[in-house]
């Protein structure tokens, strides 16, 4: 075995362990930061911050964007609806969908950001892939809310067979696996493109 191969194998093991630790740590930090932020921007919370609630409440921005986009999707399919309050999308004189905190998808979003940040990559690629993943998760969530509202308005008996939270999780994690595959595939292509040419003599040091 060459010295180069031995060093390379050791570095790979170290990198894998480091990546897993970073992934778990970043996911937990992001997830619980969101939970904490929800608590301090909730007017009924024990540690409410009026400044953050008024000017930096990204949780409400996320919910509002989902409400408006789901409403637009429903209108595309001929369903009239209106936003009754900051949580609810409702059909006139009909059913509605309440978007609670657990419906926002910040858990899977936290995982995706942590996965990308934990990579050894350029910040430009990290930003790009973070945006690709977050946008995809957000779009799926918007479609989920729209489909639920359409199903309720048309009296589809889907809740008897499917739980929309479970369905959303399955679809999102399937999407994440696809994105992870595409990310690594794209990374390998870039590595091959940018790899400098060396002869075998330059790479191998035997003992």
UniProtKB/TrEMBL annotation:
InterPro entries: Exo/Archaeosortase_dom. GO terms for cellular component: plasma membrane. It is a multi-pass membrane protein. It is found in: Cell membrane. Keywords: Cell membrane, Hydrolase, Membrane, Protease, Transmembrane, Transmembrane helix. The lineage of its organism: Bacteria, Pseudomonadati, Bacteroidota, Cytophagia, Cytophagales. One of its GO terms (biological process) is proteolysis. One of its GO terms (molecular function) is peptidase activity. The keyword Membrane applies. This is Exosortase/archaeosortase family protein. The chain crosses the membrane at residues 19-40, 98-117, 129-152, 167-184.
